[in-house]
TrEMBL record, chain A:
PANTHER family reported in the protein's UniProt record: TUBULIN EPSILON AND DELTA COMPLEX PROTEIN 1
Start and end residues of each Tubulin epsilon and delta complex protein domain: 107-253
Protein name as catalogued: Tubulin epsilon and delta complex protein 1 domain-containing protein
Species whose genome carries this gene: Solea senegalensis (Senegalese sole)
Superkingdom of the organism of origin: Eukaryota
InterPro entries the UniProt entry points to: TEDC1, TEDC1_dom
Automatic annotation (TrEMBL), chain B:
Alphabetical keyword list: Cytoplasm, Cytoskeleton, GTP-binding, Microtubule, Nucleotide-binding
GO molecular function: GTP binding
Pfam family of the protein (one): Tubulin
GO biological processes: microtubule-based process
Domain Tubulin/FtsZ GTPase: 41-241
Any GO CC annotation of this UniProt entry: microtubule
Similarity section: Belongs to the tubulin family.
Subcellular localization, as worded in the UniProt entry: Cytoplasm, Cytoskeleton
Keyword match Cell division: no
Protein name: Tubulin delta chain
Native source species: Solea senegalensis (Senegalese sole)
């Protein structure tokens, strides 16, 4: 906690500034200021919430998770927010407040603070939305960008070394080599055009001489500048990203600290799953032998149920020490996942061997693997 | 995207001039859509400061006469011209000797030629590749042409090189034409991406039987070659071009037809071809044209006259027995280019029959189709088939056989040894060409 507090300093503000510039460069309108982010951490107010609602809406719309009808304007704020909540659930963010109906409609708009929205934004960024936005924007700006076409592979997974397969392979290799050369020549053309644009933009007299081509050049130049700004913003963001995530950790901590819990007394936690879910999940885990060890280890840190911070937990009955920090929990889950994957692979191998034995016993039957 | 053409030797310079003429008159034909014209002009011409269309070509010959004629003809047309200083010639020819061209003239003048090519290349926004045009019979086209192709391959390793070769009359124009042909083909096979061949014999027959020309001159023959080449090279909509004219004609041509290093020989046939006076009175339907073209392909006739209508694709059982279906022309890959009215209504399913192709390539890979709604060279509808098939097997085999017979008695070999081509080099070349013949023979297995 000390470490986290120490990292929340002026630097954070700059880092959030970097993020804001990057978000703006990806073409999002109305990105909140770093100060708004800070206020959101401490709950913020209606104004802060409004800005984050807007940002989340824009992001979800741009990534195609939600879309509003042709009119563009949702029927009302509540409809609008419901759509955003549904969009968030689609992206895997199952915070309680996103289940508006279950938490009570009348509480909507009050049942959460700006911090929930900030955490939701964090979730979106952590799940690769930023990169998706970036890619989308780069594709818009870069007209010469090559999008890989799906290539139909004609080579079957079963390698055959007869002469016709070899010839087919030689043909395909030749085809690839030709494609490579076509791509290289496209790159060359692109470089040449860039050079033309750059030299045209450097000499204003040259660009003013030819009107028609200069407008096209200016547009191209403008697009390229935007592209450069975008990529630069991303490059600036990448090395300092960690600072932001440490700060987001501290936002999470605010949720868990009782002093803040008072503020959001009726606020269910953001990583709260539906109340039946942990039980179901627990049942499922119980059936898996590997998971049981994990469960035991989780219990060692505190009861598994406590891992889902329900609203009651915040009402004072549970000591903060019982709460497993998100980072540790995620680590445990990752370990469990790895173990389960290992187990699955082993089982698959066993199954395959068994299948091969069975096949071996069946004479005259030829099975072609998919 | 632009194609730089290298015209080499007498034949190359004459065919090249006809090609540019056909392309330019076709592109500037009245009532044309502008995109087609723009793309075509960008592909083959640049504009000089007076606004004239200047061919993206380099003219090379060891004698000045033909280059002068070609440049004059171009300038006289009033539509286009050659660049004033994009030609290179010498006083003395190569004496129909491949070795003289390849070992002496080529190395001696390559720097000047490279400089001319570099200047043309720098004029292109984007270089689609090179097309060299030459005959294989003489000395300059074949010998210098091969040497220049080699230097192009070194200098522009990423660019596509399409060699257009004119094969001599079987009866013989030059006594050593078969030597020259074998040496050229053997070397080009290693350097070129694809070799597009026109046989003088075939074109001559087209002139006499389809175009009803009484006294056939080289100019008539060249015009037919130019027409066929033009119908391949003019802008078309390809599967990869997403509704705009393909910008990489050579790349797409080569990618669809010649991906395998052992199979690079392409032949062309076009339908319809008729005297220009008859065009106005003729109507054509796509099904009729394509039915003819398909039969021309499988029976290996380059003309719509005298097609063997009995020829049928061999069935699977016949194919395994092989050799019985020897006269059936098996294809490795085909490219069908349709130009003209209602082009999208044309049904080309007949070319997707697996029986037409070798067993190891699926028809989906082997068959490609390009379309252009713009008619070509006054024909309301025209279809051109570029085929990588066994079509050239027979003339190639004849050529090698005759050359080998001469070589067996060491006839004229000393003329080649004099310029630095040893008997070993000859044997190597024979081996490579025999390999090509063997590869194409195995296509029907």
């Amino acid at each position: 906690m000390q470490r986290r507090k120490a990292s929340v300093n002026v630097e954070v503000k700059q880092v959030i500034g970097t993020l804001c510039r990057l978000l703006t460069a990806t073409g999002l309108d109305a990105v909140p200021t770093p100060e708004t982010f800070r206020r959101a951490k401490f709950g913020g107010g209606l104004e802060v919430e409004g800005q984050f609602w807007q940002l989340l809406t824009n992001i979800l719309q741009r990534t195609g998770v939600i879309s509003f009808e042709a009119g563009g304007q949702p029927r009302g704020d509540s409809e609008h927010r419901k759509a955003v909540a549904a969009g968030l659930r689609q992206t895997g963010c199952h915070a309680d407040w996103t289940y508006g109906r279950q938490t009570g409609e009348e509480e909507e708009g009050k049942s959460f603070s700006g911090r929930d929205l900030l955490l939701a934004l964090g979730w979106l960024l952590a799940t690769g939305t930023l990169e998706a936005l970036l890619t989308q924007r780069v594709q818009q700006l870069d007209k010469l960008l090559l999008t890989p076409l799906p290539v139909v592979s004609l080579v079957s997974s079963e390698l055959q070394f007869d002469s016709s397969s070899l010839r087919r392979l030689q043909w395909l290799v030749g085809c690839l080599r030709h494609q490579r050369r076509i791509l290289l020549s496209m790159l060359e053309e692109r470089t040449r055009k860039l050079h033309t644009i750059c030299s045209a933009s450097l000499s204003p007299t040259a660009s003013s001489s030819s009107n028609q081509s200069s407008t096209a050049l200016k547009e191209d130049c403008d697009r390229l500048r935007q592209l450069c700004d975008l990529l630069e913003a991303y490059l600036n963001w990448k090395p300092v990203e960690n600072v932001f995530w440490t700060w987001m950790d501290s936002v999470m901590d605010c949720h868990q600290t009782p002093s803040f819990a008072k503020e959001s007394l009726h606020t269910p936690s953001v990583c709260q799953h539906n109340s039946q879910r942990p039980e179901k999940c627990e049942d499922m885990l119980m059936r898996l032998p590997t998971a049981q060890t994990c469960r035991v280890r989780l219990q060692g840190k505190g009861p598994v149920r406590d891992h889902s911070y329900t609203a009651e937990n915040f009402q004072g009955s549970v000591e903060p020490s019982d709460i497993l920090p998100a980072s540790q929990a995620s680590q445990l889950l990752l370990q469990t996942e790895a173990l389960l994957l290992q187990k699955r692979d082993r089982l698959r191998l066993e199954n395959r061997l068994r299948l091969q034995e069975v096949i071996g016993e069946l004479e005259g039957l030829v099975l072609i693997p998919p | 995207m632009s194609v730089v053409t290298l015209q080499l030797g007498q034949c190359g310079n004459q065919v090249g001039q006809e090609l540019y003429d056909v392309i330019c008159s076709d592109a500037q034909d009245a009532q044309r859509r502008t995109t087609h014209t723009t793309v075509s002009c960008e592909r083959f011409f640049h504009q000089n400061k007076h606004g004239d269309l200047v061919a993206r070509a380099v003219l090379i010959d060891m004698e000045p006469k033909v280059i002068k004629q070609s440049m004059k003809k171009a300038a006289d047309s009033g539509r286009w011209r050659y660049g004033d200083d994009s030609h290179f010639s010498q006083k003395q020819g190569s004496g129909n000797n491949w070795a003289n061209g390849f070992c002496v003239h080529g190395p001696r003048h390559i720097e000047v030629v490279e400089e001319l090519v570099r200047r043309e290349v720098e004029r292109c926004d984007r270089l689609a590749g090179f097309m060299t045009m030459m005959s294989v019979a003489g000395g300059t086209g074949s010998g210098v042409g091969t040497y220049v192709t080699q230097s192009l391959r070194d200098a522009y390793s990423k660019s596509f090189i399409l060699n257009h070769l004119t094969w001599p009359y079987g009866t013989g124009e030059v006594i050593v034409q078969n030597y020259n042909s074998v040496l050229t083909l053997a070397h080009l096979y290693q350097l070129s991406d694809a070799i597009l061949v026109h046989e003088n014999d075939t074109v001559h027959r087209i002139c006499s039987q389809l175009l009803n020309i009484k006294h056939i001159s080289f100019s008539d023959v060249n015009r037919v070659i130019a027409h066929q080449l033009g119908s391949v090279l003019q802008p078309a909509l390809t599967a990869d071009s997403h509704g705009v004219y393909s910008r990489n004609p050579l790349g797409e041509l080569v990618s669809s037809l010649a991906c395998h290093p052992e199979y690079k020989l392409l032949s062309v046939c076009t339908i319809p071809q008729m005297p220009s006076s008859s065009i106005a009175y003729s109507t054509f339907s796509w099904p009729g044209l394509l039915k003819h073209l398909r039969q021309m392909l499988i029976s290996n006739s380059k003309m719509e006259d005298g097609i063997d209508w009995q020829m049928r694709p061999p069935s699977a059982s016949e194919r395994t027995r092989s050799l019985t279906g020897a006269s059936f022309n098996t294809s490795l890959a085909n490219l069908l280019i349709l130009r003209g009215k209602d082009v999208y209504s044309a049904e080309a399913g007949g070319f997707e029959d697996p029986a037409l192709y070798t067993s190891w390539l699926s028809p989906e890979t082997a068959f490609t189709r390009w379309n252009s709604p713009v008619p070509f060279n006054k024909y309301e509808k025209s279809a051109t088939l570029v085929s990588n098939s066994q079509a050239l097997l027979k003339p190639l085999d004849n050529m090698v056989r005759k050359a080998w017979n001469m070589f067996a008695s060491r006839a004229y070999i000393h003329q080649y040894i004099r310029f630095g081509i040893s008997e070993e080099d000859f044997l190597d070349s024979f081996t490579s060409v025999e390999q090509v013949i063997s590869s194409y023979t195995q296509l029907c297995n």
